Amino acid sequence: MDFVLYNAPQSTCSQRVRYMLHAKGLAFEEKKLDLFSGDQLKPDYLAINPNGVVPALVHDGRPVIDSAVILEYLEDIFPDIATMRPVDPMGAAQVRAMMRFIDEVPTPAIRIPSYNRAFLPHFQAMSDQEFQALCDSKPLRREFLMRMGRTGFPQADMDEALGRLRRGVERLDRWIDESGGPWTMGKALSLADIAVMPVVVRMDDINLGHLWDGLPRVQSWLEYIRETAPFRPTYYHGALLTEKYPHLADLKKQRAKAI
Ligand SMILES: N[C@@H](CCC(=O)N[C@@H](CS)C(=O)NCC(=O)O)C(=O)O
Prior knowledge:
By secondary structure, the protein is an alpha+beta fold.
């Protein structure tokens, strides 16, 4: 068994897969791509993932792409180690429906505050032509980047994204409540917990933790998942935005003082 993970430390989609590999106890070679230098758009990588995004997991020489697909793939090949999806088809369908919701609602939404609050300066020194060429080079994110431009997403987009994030944590709260907790599917961690983890961790990291005010189950869930063994090797130093962008760390400290 040979696993090579192409990923980036701070990429939320990559964090899902790192967590899953650690949870299953699988050794892997980690290749770190620098997303702001365009490693993900180089021909060698596009041959592995034509979407030009991370992560990609190469298993015995064959690529598997898209983080949710990779989670399912690892569960399919190692169903008996740290089982993350019920074996019965109805239970499996429930987990998959949660994962779809996560990838429809909160996952795309977290990109907007992440870019506005952290990544925007990477693009601001570019000329119009350079920026347009960069947008045009992105198979998946061309229009997303063009909408952001060099001034950031407009307030209306931010408001919409925060609304979607709030709906995301409300749904997480309901899943925990309905299953009896502490996880989305009850007593055992599931693929849905892993799929939503990086969004909630990122929200906390970029000072959006107030979005689960009044939902203490979500705060407890975050504390529990941080205590699980795969969390620490997944979030090695440099995986959080506050570890790289000092202004975000300052914001977080100010909020901590205020409460
Ligand atoms: N649906 C894909 C999305 C992957 C994705 O958006 N990756 C981001 C990092 S989290 C990326 O590589 N962005 C690079 C870019 O936009 O150029 C997955 O879940 O794997």
